[in-house]
Design goal:
two-stranded antiparallel ribbon, alpha+beta, six-stranded antiparallel beta sheet
């Protein structure tokens, strides 16, 4: 399959390649049954017989297909056929937040505020449904030109921890994206909603400041900063940010989960009463 080539996966006719990543592609497709557009995610050919990558694709569907919220992408169908496994999602024609940042698009304070509130609503809903995302980052929010947001990619999601999972969680494989990983995620210890909150704060810092709160010339340097360094004040990179919002973000970036707001839902309530930008 190549960009713009027509082909079929089951009843879905592939129209245009809209995203190509390290392990997957996403195609715009049309379903013969209702003539509506859908997004179809497929593994790249070299990964189609890889059990781990197939498990991630299936996991994304298992987590997402029962979730129902306007701020989350809707998962519709999974087909694990051995030739070309694929996942079908609602069609939402919008770039990722990362693409908006990289393109340097100047968005109004009103639109940026809406993006931040809607992204927070998405994560708060996911937590209320009993899941921790574990890979919150700009890549995993789709943002329309009007500021409508949808959270995507549930492949790394885990159930909220209980007493037993908290007791036996140390030494687990570290997964996530380094620029946005919480200290507890880096240590391989138990993560709950406050870990996603840390990653969300990193994401908003990047959105408003043009760079994540921590950067490094090597992986060890970057991870060490997450564990020990104090992030520069966001106002240094964006003087339009209100000190109250900067302080709220700083608390969400606390090294210890206990020092952060208690949940993303609590953080959302605080956001709703905290102006983000100066007049």
């Amino acid at each position: 399959m190549s960009r713009g080539a027509a082909g079929y996966l089951g009843p879905y006719r592939l129209l245009n390649l809209v995203y190509s990543g390290a392990t997957t592609q996403v195609w715009q497709a049309i379903y013969d049954g209702d003539q509506r557009y859908y997004a179809v995610k497929v593994l790249l050919e070299r990964y189609r017989r890889d059990r781990e990558h197939l498990r991630y694709l299936k996991r994304e569907y298992q987590v997402g297909h029962n979730l129902n919220h306007e701020r989350l992408i809707r998962l519709i169908h999974f087909d694990g056929n051995r030739t070309c496994p694929f996942l079908v999602m609602e069609w939402f024609p919008a770039p990722s937040m990362r693409a908006l940042i990289q393109q340097g698009q100047e968005l109004s304070p009103k639109v940026l505020t809406q993006i931040i509130l809607q992204a927070t609503e998405a994560v708060a809903y996911l937590h209320s449904a009993g899941w921790v995302h574990r890979d919150i980052k700009p890549d995993n929010f789709l943002v329309s030109p009007s500021g409508e947001v949808k959270l995507i990619d549930f492949a790394l999601a885990q159930r909220m921890p209980n007493v037993l999972t908290r007791m036996f969680s140390f030494g687990k494989r570290i997964q996530g994206t380094q620029s946005y990983m919480s200290p507890e995620q880096i240590r391989g210890s138990c993560v709950d909603g406050r870990s996603d909150l840390y990653s969300l704060a990193c994401t908003f810092y990047h959105l408003l400041g043009g760079q994540p709160p921590f950067t490094g010339s090597s992986t060890p340097e970057l991870l060490s900063k997450h564990l020990r360094a104090v992030p520069p004040p966001l106002e240094r990179f964006n003087p339009q940010v209100q000190p109250g919002f900067s302080e709220l973000l700083r608390r969400a970036l606390a090294k210890r989960p206990l020092d952060r707001p208690g949940s993303v839902a609590e953080f959302l309530v605080q956001l709703q009463t905290t102006p983000i930008f100066r007049e």
